[in-house]
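Whether sequence alone determines local backbone shape is best considered at the level of individual chains. In the encoding step, the backbone of a single protein was reduced to a row of integers, each denoting a local shape. For completeness, the protein is quoted in full, as a sequence line and a line of structure tokens.
***
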Amino acid sequence: MVVKSIVEFILGLFFLIGILATYHVSEYMVAEVIWPKKFRRFHIDFVQVYTTLYFLVVFLAFLVIRLNIPDILEYDNLQLLILFFFLFYSKEKRVYWRLTALVLFALFGELALFGEKYWQWALIFYSSSLFMVVIAYLVRKKSYFLMWLSSVSVGVFFWSLELLAASVSFSKFIYGLTLYIALSSFLFVIIVFESHYRNQVIENKRFAMFDEMTATKNYRSFVKEFGQSLQLADEQQKPIAFIMLDIDHFKLINDTYGHLSGNQVLKFVAVDLINNAYDFDSQADVYRLGGEEFGIFLPNTNLAEAQKFTQKCRYSLSQLAVPIDNGILHLTASFGCDISRTGDDFNTFYQRVDQYLYQAKNNGGNKVNNF
């Protein structure tokens, strides 16, 4: 019995770790290769769709194996854990409603296909599955410990029903429940470490992409994404607009009111630009190009639209009231804007708009120049 327990634990662990590892690798391929950035303008969370399909296929595969080869492993444990980890990795609230409908459909489908042979097991298993959906929903934003506890409670619920229905002996109940708790506990330890690692990677990636002070993207991100957008614009024969701006007399602000006040100005300007860019196109990003210079590029935008957007930004910034220690600061900014032309590369497009910007500054500031 001890050897059987160890073998089942090891095999079950390898099954589940393999399933989760395959999910993470394939999810990365879907997110970064199969569903590249240029398709993300469609309002479809393709990764969530893939997550649902992946775990559904695995869950059904284990169901088929269990029905045809019932005596190799405790597939009930593996299926319940697969279901729980699917809910763990799914982010959308509506997934719970979809899964509830799917569980009910599977229950009635199994009863229709197999009749009396599996009706008792089906009622117990799918009742446990519905209980899991409910309890996972309740703890979805709680601590890892509560999530583990909810997972264990589902195992206790399932095996207790099996015992009460006289489907298993007491020794089988202890064996199955112990195996479930061991697998659930071991996997949760792995997932906690994996989640912390992923969060650290995301945090490091964010630091590499964003300007910490203003929460805009940094120059490294700008160079990379500007090049990608130019290439896409050339492929689709649709221009992109590029806007550069420079806060007027920013050095005087620093010299007169101090660098902390200058930082406050940068933060307020960044927030205002981000809001305007989002209103124009929810996919548009704002970049801090250095010092008091910012940049925005807008895909699929003609010159008239770019000019209108830039004038809106210029006016909006002129209405800002930035609170500082000594009172309120008002500011203006100068802008250069243009759309891409045939044959433009990064340098030619950037230098042209940069030249327009400095023409606007040399003409007194608080202007938009695009010629």
